[in-house]
Amino acid sequence: QLQLVESGGGLVQPGGSLTISCVASGLDWRGLTLDRYAIGWFRQAPGKEREGVSCIGTIQSGGRSIYVDSVKGRFTISRDNAKNTVYLQMNSLKPEDTAVYYCATQAYDGGCSTNIPPGDFEDWGQGTQVTVSS
Question: Is 80 exceeded by the pLDDT of residue 30?
């Protein structure tokens, strides 16, 4: 089980950019690196269900990244093993991107599921608020 902590959220104007981070701990004593885990980013807006946004697969599966249609071309997920961190760079932000953003580890090895179902993930962080407003 890993511990994940999100940070970097804030208030940004429509059309602006923001990069949020997900730092993982609990890897060192296992002798593992972060790329042994598939990591997903999710968001939950008030009154709505939590939805998958992006996911990066394990290195063994090729490390492929996937995105939901609403963020394709605007968001980029990346991983830095040395810092035990997964990032979500968000460009061309829209008011509908406003939500609490969470990261989590996929409960099984391999690539990410196409629709990034929250039920397939565990080790949830506490979330970071992203607000897009003028």
Answer: no
